[in-house]
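Action item from last meeting closed. Structure (1411 res):
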């Protein structure tokens, strides 16, 4: 049979005939199966020889069919192993010494049968699971021990081979320790005898051996004398008979040869060689000399025998004592003489790998002559390119362990080792084709994944060692820093994570910007960075055992390379990989940082470290161009500018690839608990570097992390107390981050209680305020105090000398409770007791001066120093200069500006003065003001201080009655803010007036979406789960038209144009996904959009349709622009780097000139990309504000003119936004229904809608209707609002629970309606059924809303059992008892018209009560 051909049909047929004959023969108890067993063994051995001719990997222990599915040997194994009865007989019966006696009662000798049974079992062992064969077979193993010790040949050798397979199982080897102790010395002695017979006596010299081999005329040509570097059998004219022993060796089971007997003995000794207890026998029998003779090809030409000896040698190299003696006796030189190619060279790779594991051994090797080290590296590099995967694997791991030794590292570079190492992965099929579809099924792909794992680890070790050497070189070349030299060349370089980080910082600080670092430059030129990125990209999509280690090693290698500007610029570029994938390197790194399902936080840490290296570099590195070169320069200088602009480029790349969102999330990570503190600290350090970018800093300043107290909560205490060191670093970086983002120093009074942008701004104003007061009032207070203590004479003297009035002094008022509450509420956190100490002042932002204050203590608080200019220091107090010195602050140049201290820390060295105490008291009062002023009048010690509110005297009052009264004086709305207050009042009230539900004989209809028709049509179009659209009459509530089978799945979107003649429908699952219909006179289809899952009309002219098309299986979207008149696609807008929103919907701006698709803004006229907005959520794309100047994307509001982040609106988290047609308010509905199909785990139940003022984005109301919401829409004049409601989730819902409920805007239910608990089906029969009879109750009728019709808006909302949840400025319906206590015309059955803003308008409770 030709090796590598298909299965041999004749051999397979013969085996089947033999099995059938055996099945027929065993029916006769006296039938002898020996001839059949012998013939089966001969067939298997013949095919085994054919299989070995294909040169399989000798360390590959897989079933032959997994190596080559067309292999005949594997097919024979399958046929035999499937016959359970045959296998049971072979293992349990034919190996018994009393088989004939037990089976037939005969006294026949069983030796021959036992011999051929053991022979066949040994032949097919490669196709069996060893642990299964010998499971519960203790008696068989004991017989094998007996046969191996004293049975005649060849049974003794067959038993030895079977014992070798059994000893591979550690449990079996441990259970038969005593038997092995008796047999091992015997086997060693037997092996020595066989070697002497085969290779001659140990005293025979190499010259004698050469004379013995001289009789073979082709011995010289066949490579028997070739050394490691001279073997070129492919160029020789020798025959296969001459080459076979050297390449693959010989293995003959029958008749048993001496070489085969030695191979079986070595296989038995190999698994036992790792045990310490047999090491004494190894030295006693001088097994090292025996192994040396086997691996010396001048004495032993058989490669198979040498390979088994090398396997035994690798087991012995686990022992340090044996390893050191092996090296001292020249074992390494002999190992490097093994010819290549051949299986012996593959065996040598394992020996080199075990040598690399011993640090002492490698130190000895590094002390050998340079020629030996050169040969060692050359041999290992050849193994990197050999045909056997195991040889490449062992050589790769060997280098990974050896790179910490400088001689090995230097020889690796001299022999172009980096290129050969990259070729190991560069030639893999998954790298060249990008095909990852068969990873879990193909063993070759599994091997390829392991190869990527080992190469990435080796590259990481290589770069870490190079980093140590380069950093040491820079340190010794730097005048500023001196460090001890590296250890001697033969000692290992100590590479630890801490040392790597320190060396990275050294490189960034001392390495010139345009300097060359040869290892990284070589890797860059060979495409190594792109290869590492591709490995990360491939590995993230599949699951296997070494996934985390592969990605982590690749990221660590990239991190070291990123010290070079060229590598950072390459990370910022887009790379196209085989298979059609394309991505930006920085984007891939950011994706690795935010992957929580990786299962290994070390991957996240490595990714964050790469980001830190890219964004936290020094602003001025040695060799960078001066800022003076910003003027026009020569072409050569312009070519160098990218390196000078490196940091801005990397800042922009990280930001545009969603780096801020990822790092913000990691900064608040709490899982896994053991690594959360480390991840937080690294994320904060990365944000500090990124905050040096003006664009990133502007965005961060508007995020909730800085505008609320989230950052303070993060740095308050560590997740795990054992990680306090990481937490302290986090605190330092967080304070630096606040300084960068705020643009002001955190060293301000009043800023230590809360770290938010608002408090920092207020603290900055307070710090600049000049505190001055009336000294005479202070003396009056002292006089009053002396009198109260009975010191009349002293008080009289004070009164006379100070010229105080004789009348009783005015008693200082305590701060009114209401005012105190209002001032305290302006701070997000309760002020802490205690003062902040500095070198010249002791100013605290606490409320110690308030009467009855309760101290709040904390284990630790941040001690903050303050910085003032000279003018501020001189003007702190109008009294004396000695008092002014009390307020001087520490210089900002002090390195210890932020310290952690206990609340009861020691007092300052400066004395406490009365002026200082009073000044602190007044400063604390000033810090509690909502809007503190820099310039304040003289403070009154008898009255609580409060800065005036920022409000015009002509502003409209918050009270409705007052506002209506002032309309005559300040038309048309009673003041500048009157229209906004009217709008807030109207949109805080909703009254259910009708319920739309269709019941049929069999079942009800599940509604999914709805929309209003134009004013003159008075219809509501409602979509259903079965693809039907129903037209309901708004007046009668009846279904007037039903349009069936518009889509094959549930309808997710409906939109009718302003003319009322066209309607758009969308679905999600079956094509066509969307369609345009004509609904005027006759209902018919106009255009189908098969691939667009969402469509909408253009906003201004409504002559175009914008569709959103999703790329299959991804979150990449294309915006398709269609012309309604022709039905043709006129433009296609494809983002180059979209944000990957899961529920993306492309949308027009109000002028139809811009389109927002997947976070990217397009100019439709060009068409071209205008700007990509930063990503801060995974779901919502965003919509345009009707004013055309802003974009609302989830919680973020973007300015379209500057592309700056204006503010964040946390209330809109995961909400689909719908603007009212008038544009005054927007409705936010949490994603539900079909939108939730994108990510069901991400969102909670959507049972409420939120009403937001579109001018300042403050909350007006949160209306909870206690039912699942699927859609929301408002009519043309914003007076009616419709909600698609359901009791449960779609799919689990009872269809009779689905309805569309109509609400009237600006009305609330009367008292009789509030008490009425009728069924929801009868809501349309209550007092709201006739909408025209309730005009007198409609608050909206008081006002002229002046709406402009701008198309309809859709969303979600709920039921008549509504709950109004108001924010600080929301309007909530008061209870009946509260309404009964109110008085005046401002109270009626529709609820109190007094809002929270009215309460903010008045000072104290007295004015409120009088009003």
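Sequence:
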């Amino acid at each position: 049979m030709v090796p590598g051909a298909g299965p041999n049909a004749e051999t397979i047929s013969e085996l089947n005939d033999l099995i059938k004959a055996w099945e027929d023969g065993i029916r006769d108890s006296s039938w002898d199966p020996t001839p059949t067993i012998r013939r089966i063994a001969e067939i298997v051995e013949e095919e085994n020889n054919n299989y070995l001719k294909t040169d399989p990997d000798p360390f590959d222990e897989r079933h032959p069919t997994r190596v080559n599915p067309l292999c005949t040997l594997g097919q024979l194994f399958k046929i035999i192993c499937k016959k359970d009865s045959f296998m049971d007989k072979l293992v349990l019966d034919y190996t018994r010494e009393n088989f004939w006696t037990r089976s037939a009662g005969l006294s026949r000798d069983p030796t021959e049968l036992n011999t051929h049974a053991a022979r066949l079992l040994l032949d097919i062992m490669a196709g069996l699971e060893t642990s299964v064969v010998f499971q519960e077979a203790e008696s068989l193993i004991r017989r094998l021990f007996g046969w191996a010790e004293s049975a005649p040949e060849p049974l003794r050798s067959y038993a030895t081979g079977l014992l070798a397979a059994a000893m591979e199982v550690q449990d079996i080897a441990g259970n038969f320790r005593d038997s092995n102790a008796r047999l091992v010395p015997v086997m060693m002695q037997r092996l020595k005898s066989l070697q002497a017979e085969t290779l001659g006596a140990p005293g025979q010299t190499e010259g004698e051996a050469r004379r013995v081999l001289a009789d073979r005329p082709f011995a010289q040509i066949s490579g028997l004398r070739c050394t490691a570097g001279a073997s070129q059998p492919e160029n020789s004219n020798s025959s296969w008979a001459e080459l076979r022993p050297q390449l693959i060796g010989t293995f003959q089971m029958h008749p048993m040869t001496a070489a085969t007997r030695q191979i079986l003995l070595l296989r038995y000794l190999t698994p036992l060689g790792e045990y310490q207890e047999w090491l004494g026998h190894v030295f006693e029998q001088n097994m090292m000399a025996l192994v040396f003779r086997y691996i010396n090809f001048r004495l032993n030409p058989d490669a198979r025998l040498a390979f088994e000896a090398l396997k035994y040698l690798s087991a012995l190299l686990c022992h340090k004592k044996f390893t050191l003696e092996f090296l001292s006796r020249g074992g390494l030189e002999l190992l490097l003489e093994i010819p290549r190619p051949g299986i012996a060279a593959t065996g040598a790779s394992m020996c080199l790998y075990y040598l690399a594991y011993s640090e002492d051994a490698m130190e000895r090797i590094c002390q050998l002559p340079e020629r030996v080290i050169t040969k060692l590296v050359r041999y290992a590099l050849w193994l990197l390119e050999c045909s056997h995967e195991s040889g490449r694997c062992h050589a790769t791991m060997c280098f990974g362990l050896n790179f910490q030794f400088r001689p090995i590292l230097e020889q690796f570079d001299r022999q172009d080792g980096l290129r050969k190492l990259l070729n190991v992965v560069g030639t893999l099929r998954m790298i060249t084709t990008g095909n990852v579809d068969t990873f879990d099924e193909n063993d070759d792909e599994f091997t390829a994944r392991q190869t990527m794992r080992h190469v990435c680890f080796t590259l990481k070790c290589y770069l870490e060692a190079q980093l140590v050497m380069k950093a040491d070189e820079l340190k010794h070349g730097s005048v500023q820093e001196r460090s001890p030299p590296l250890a001697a060349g033969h000692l290992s370089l100590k590479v630890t994570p801490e040392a790597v980080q320190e060396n990275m910082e050294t490189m960034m600080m001392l390495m010139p910007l345009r300097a060359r670092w040869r290892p990284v430059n070589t890797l860059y030129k060979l495409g190594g960075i792109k290869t590492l990125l591709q490995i990360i990209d491939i590995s993230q999509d599949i699951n296997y055992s070494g996934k985390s280690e592969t990605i982590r090693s690749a990221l660590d290698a990239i991190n070291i390379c990123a010290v070079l500007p060229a590598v950072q610029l390459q990370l910022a570029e887009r790379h196209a990989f085989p298979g059609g994938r394309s991505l930006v390197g920085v984007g891939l790194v950011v994706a690795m940082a935010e992957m929580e399902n990786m299962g290994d936080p070390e991957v996240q840490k490595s990714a964050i470290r790469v980001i830190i290296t890219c964004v936290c570099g020094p602003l001025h590195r040695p060799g960078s161009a001066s800022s003076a070169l910003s003027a026009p320069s020569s072409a050569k200088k312009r070519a160098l500018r990218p390196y000078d602009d490196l940091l801005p480029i990397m800042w922009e790349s990280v930001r545009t690839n969603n780096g801020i969102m990822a790092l913000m999330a990691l900064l608040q990570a709490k899982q896994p608990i053991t690594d959360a503190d480390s991840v937080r600290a690294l994320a904060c350090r990365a944000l500090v570097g990124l905050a040096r970018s003006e664009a990133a800093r502007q965005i961060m300043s508007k995020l909730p992390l800085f505008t609320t107290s989230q950052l303070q909560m993060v740095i308050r205490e560590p997740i795990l107390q054992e990680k306090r060191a990481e937490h302290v670093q986090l605190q330092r970086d967080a304070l630096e981050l606040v300084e960068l983002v705020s643009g002001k120093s955190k060293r301000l009074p009043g800023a230590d209680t809360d770290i938010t942008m608002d408090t920092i701004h207020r603290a900055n104003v307070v710090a600049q305020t000049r505190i001055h007061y009336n000294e005479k009032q202070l003396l009056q207070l002292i006089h009053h105090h002396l009198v109260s203590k009975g010191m009349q004479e002293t008080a009289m003297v004070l009164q006379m000398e100070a010229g105080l009035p004789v009348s009783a002094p005015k008693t200082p008022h305590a701060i009114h409770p209401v005012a105190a509450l209002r001032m305290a509420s302006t701070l997000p956190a309760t002020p802490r007791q205690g003062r902040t100490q500095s070198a010249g002042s002791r100013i605290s932002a606490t409320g110690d001066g308030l009467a009855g204050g309760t101290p709040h203590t904390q284990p630790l608080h941040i001690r903050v120093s303050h910085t003032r200019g000279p003018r501020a220091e001189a003007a702190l107090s109008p009294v004396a200069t000695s008092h002014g010195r009390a307020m001087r602050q520490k210089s900002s140049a002090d390195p210890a500006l932020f310290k952690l201290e206990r609340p009861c820390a020691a007092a300052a060295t400066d004395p406490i003065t009365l002026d200082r105490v009073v000044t602190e008291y007044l400063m604390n009062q000033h810090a509690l003001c909502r809007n503190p002023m820099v310039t304040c009048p003289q403070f009154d010690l008898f009255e609580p201080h409060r800065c005036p509110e920022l409000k015009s005297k002509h502003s409209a009052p918050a009270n409705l009655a007052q506002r209506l009264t002032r309309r005559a004086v300040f038309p048309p709305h009673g003041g500048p803010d009157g229209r906004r207050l009217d709008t807030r009042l109207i949109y805080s009230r909703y009254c259910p007036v009708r319920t739309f539900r269709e019941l049929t004989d069999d079942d009800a209809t599940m509604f999914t979406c709805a929309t209003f028709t134009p004013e003159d049509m008075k219809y509501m179009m409602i979509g259903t789960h079965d693809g039907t659209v129903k037209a309901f009459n708004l007046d009668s509530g009846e279904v007037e038209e039903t349009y069936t089978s518009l889509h094959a799945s549930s309808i997710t979107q409906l939109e009718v144009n302003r003319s009322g003649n066209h309607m758009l429908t969308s679905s999600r699952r079956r094509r066509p996904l969307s369609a345009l219909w004509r609904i005027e006179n006759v209902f018919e289809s106009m255009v189908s959009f098969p691939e667009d899952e969402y469509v909408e009309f253009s906003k201004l002219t409504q002559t175009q349709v914008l569709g959103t098309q999703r790329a299959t299986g991804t979150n990449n979207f294309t915006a398709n622009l269609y012309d309604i008149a022709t039905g043709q696609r006129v433009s296609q807008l494809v983002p180059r780097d979209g944000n990957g929103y899961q529920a993306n919907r492309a949308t027009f701006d109000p002028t139809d000139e811009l389109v927002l698709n997947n976070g990217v803004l397009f100019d439709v006229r060009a068409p071209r990309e205008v700007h990509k907005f930063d990503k801060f959520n995974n779901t919502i794309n965003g919509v345009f504000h009707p004013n055309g100047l802003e974009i609302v994307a989830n919680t973020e509001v973007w300015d379209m003119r500057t592309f700056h982040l204006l503010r964040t609106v946390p209330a809109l988290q995961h909400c689909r936004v719908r603007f009212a047609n008038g544009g005054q308010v927007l409705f936010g509905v949490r994603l539900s229904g079909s939108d939730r199909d994108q990510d069901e785990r991400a969102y909670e139940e959507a049972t409420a809608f939120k009403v937001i003022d579109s001018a300042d984005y403050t909350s007006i109301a949160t209306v909870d209707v206690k039912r699942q919401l699927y859609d929301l829409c408002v009519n043309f004049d914003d007076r009616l609002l419709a909600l698609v409601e359901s009791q449960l989730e779609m799919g689990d819902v009872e269809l009779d629970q689905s309805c569309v409920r109509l609400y009237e805007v600006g009305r609330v239910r009367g008292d009789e309606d509030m008490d009425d608990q009728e069924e929801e089906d009868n809501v349309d029969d209550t007092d709201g059924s006739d909408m025209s009879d309730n005009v007198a109750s409609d608050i909206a009728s008081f006002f002229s809303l002046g709406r402009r019709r701008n198309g309809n808006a859709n969303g979600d909302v709920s039921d008549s059992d509504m709950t109004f949840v108001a924010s600080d400025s929301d309007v909530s319906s008061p209870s009946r008892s509260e309404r009964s206590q109110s008085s005046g015309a401002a109270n009626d059955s529709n609820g109190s018209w007094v809002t929270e803003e009215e309460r903010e308008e008045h000072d104290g409770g007295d004015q409120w009560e009088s009003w």
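Note appended to the action item: The longest strand covers residues 990-996.
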